[in-house]
C-alpha cells in the first residue's frame, strides 16, 4: 500500500497565512512592473528620468509582510523622501505598511512622487570626495566645514567647495533641485622664475633653470661674443649638458624606461599562467554545460514520475480499473444467461472478477480518505 500510494505523507507542510499574504503582495508588486532579482527577497523597478534612469530596490525581510519592506534608490539622489543612505523614508504608504496593505500601491506612490517632483541625481565624485576627504588634499587645501545647509537632511552628503561650505542649489519652478556641476580641477601655481609650484609631483618633473645662476658668464659677454656662441652648436650643447637638473632628468628617463621594460617582462611571464587559467575556465564551462544538460534531463524524468505517481492520478486509475472489472463481470453474467458458458466456468471467472473489482474499490476508497484528510498536501 505504501509503495502504491507513493509516500504521500512525506509531502511538505501546508502554506501558511503569512506565505499566502506574501505571495499576494508580490503579485501586486509585479503589476507595477517590478523585476524579480532574488525570489521572495529582492525586486527592482526602473524609473526613466530626463538624463538618467533611477532604480528603486524593494527588499522584503524574512517576516514580510508582518515587517515593512525596505525601499532604496540608485544612484544617489536628493529628494525630501530619501535620506542620506538612499532609503525611502518619506512615503506614508511605506511607513504605515502592514500585512493588509498593498505593496504595489506603496511603490506606485513613490513612482508618482518622483514623477511630480523629480529627484536630483548627485554626481559620484561629490560622494567620493565627501566620504574620502583625503582625495585632492595634495592639490588644494580647503578650510574645515563649519556648517551644513538646511536641506542636508534629505539631500545626499556632497563634497565641500573651496570656501568650506556645501553647495546650495536653488530649486526651479517645478520644485526640482538641479544637478550640482562638478568641481573645477585644481590649478598649479607658477612661480616668478618659471618654476612649478609644490603641486608638481610627477616623477618626470623638470624645473626650468635660472639662467643667470647656471650660466654666470653670459652676463659678462659682449654682443659679438653672444652671436659667436649662437653659431657654435657644440659649445652650446656642452654648456647645456653641464646643467645638473638636465642630468637628473636624463637619469629619471632611464629609470622609467627600465621600469617599463621590467613591467613588460613581468606581464609576459604571466602569459602561460593566464593561458592555463583560460583553458581551465573553458574546460569547466564545458563540464558545466554537460552537468546542466544531465540535470535538466533528470528534472524532466522527475516531473514525469511525480505526475505519474501523484495520489490524484493513482485514484483516477483505480476508478477506471474498478469500472473495467465491473464491466467484465457484467459481460460474464450476460454470457452465462445466453448459455455461452457453463455454470462451473462462469462461477469461477465471475468470482475472480468480482474479487478484483472489490479490492480495487476498497483501495480507491482508502486512498480517497487519505486525500480528504490531507487534502492540502495534494
UniProtKB/TrEMBL annotation:
<keyword id="KW-0967">Endosome</keyword>
<comment type="similarity">
    <text>Belongs to the VPS37 family.</text>
</comment>
<feature type="compositionally biased region" description="Polar residues">
    <location>
        <begin position="13"/>
        <end position="22"/>
    </location>
</feature>
<feature type="region of interest" description="Disordered">
    <location>
        <begin position="156"/>
        <end position="194"/>
    </location>
</feature>
<dbReference type="InterPro" id="IPR009851">
    <property type="entry name" value="Mod_r"/>
</dbReference>
<feature type="compositionally biased region" description="Gly residues">
    <location>
        <begin position="1"/>
        <end position="10"/>
    </location>
</feature>
<feature type="region of interest" description="Disordered">
    <location>
        <begin position="1"/>
        <end position="22"/>
    </location>
</feature>
<feature type="domain" description="VPS37 C-terminal">
    <location>
        <begin position="292"/>
        <end position="378"/>
    </location>
</feature>
<comment type="function">
    <text>Component of the ESCRT-I complex, a regulator of vesicular trafficking process. Required for the sorting of endocytic ubiquitinated cargos into multivesicular bodies. May be involved in cell growth and differentiation.</text>
</comment>
<dbReference type="Pfam" id="PF07200">
    <property type="entry name" value="Mod_r"/>
</dbReference>
<keyword id="KW-0653">Protein transport</keyword>
<keyword id="KW-0813">Transport</keyword>
<protein>
    <submittedName>
        <fullName>Vacuolar protein sorting-associated protein 37A</fullName>
    </submittedName>
</protein>
<dbReference type="InterPro" id="IPR037202">
    <property type="entry name" value="ESCRT_assembly_dom"/>
</dbReference>
<dbReference type="InterPro" id="IPR029012">
    <property type="entry name" value="Helix_hairpin_bin_sf"/>
</dbReference>
Amino acid at each position: 500500500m505504501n509503495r502504491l500510494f507513493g509516500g504521500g505523507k512525506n509531502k511538505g507542510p501546508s502554506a501558511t497565512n503569512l506565505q499566502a499574504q506574501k505571495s499576494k503582495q508580490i503579485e501586486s508588486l509585479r503589476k507595477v512592473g517590478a523585476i524579480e532579482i532574488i525570489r521572495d527577497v529582492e525586486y527592482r523597478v526602473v524609473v526613466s528620468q530626463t538624463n538618467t534612469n533611477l532604480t528603486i530596490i524593494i527588499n522584503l525581510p524574512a517576516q514580510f509582510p508582518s515587517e515593512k519592506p525596505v525601499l532604496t534608490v540608485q544612484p544617489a539622489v536628493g529628494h525630501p523622501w530619501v535620506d542620506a543612505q538612499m532609503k525611502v523614508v518619506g512615503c506614508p504608504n511605506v511607513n504605515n505598511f502592514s500585512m493588509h496593505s498593498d505593496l504595489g500601491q506603496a511603490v506606485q506612490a513613490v513612482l508618482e512622487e518622483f514623477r511630480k517632483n523629480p529627484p536630483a541625481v548627485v554626481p559620484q565624485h561629490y560622494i567620493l570626495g565627501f566620504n574620502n576627504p583625503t582625495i585632492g588634499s595634495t592639490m588644494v587645501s580647503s578650510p574645515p566645514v563649519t556648517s551644513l545647509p538646511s536641506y542636508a537632511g534629505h539631500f545626499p552628503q556632497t563634497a565641500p567647495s573651496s570656501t568650506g561650505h556645501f553647495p546650495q542649489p536653488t530649486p526651479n519652478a517645478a520644485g526640482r533641485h538641479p544637478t550640482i556641476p562638478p568641481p573645477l580641477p585644481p590649478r598649479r601655481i607658477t612661480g616668478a622664475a618659471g618654476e612649478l609650484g609644490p603641486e608638481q609631483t610627477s616623477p618626470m618633473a623638470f624645473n626650468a633653470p635660472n639662467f643667470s645662476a647656471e650660466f654666470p658668464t653670459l652676463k659678462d659677454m659682449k654682443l659679438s661674443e653672444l652671436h659667436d656662441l649662437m653659431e657654435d652648436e657644440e659649445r652650446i650643447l656642452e654648456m647645456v649638458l653641464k646643467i645638473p637638473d638636465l642630468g637628473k632628468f636624463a637619469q629619471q628617463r632611464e629609470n622609467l624606461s627600465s621600469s617599463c621594460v621590467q613591467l613588460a617582462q613581468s606581464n609576459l611571464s604571466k602569459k602561460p599562467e593566464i593561458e592555463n587559467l583560460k583553458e581551465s575556465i573553458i574546460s569547466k564551462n564545458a563540464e558545466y554545460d554537460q552537468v546542466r544538460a544531465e540535470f535538466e534531463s533528470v528534472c524532466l524524468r522527475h516531473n514525469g514520475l511525480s505526475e505519474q505517481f501523484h495520489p490524484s492520478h493513482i485514484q483516477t486509475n483505480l476508478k477506471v480499473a474498478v469500472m473495467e472489472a465491473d464491466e467484465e463481470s457484467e459481460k460474464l453474467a450476460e454470457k452465462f444467461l445466453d448459455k455461452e458458458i457453463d455454470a462451473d466456468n462462469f462461477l469461477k471467472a465471475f468470482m475472480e472478477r468480482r474479487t478484483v473489482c472489490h479490492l480495487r474499490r476498497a483501495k480507491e476508497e482508502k486512498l480517497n480518505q487519505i486525500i480528504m484528510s490531507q487534502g492540502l498536501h495534494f
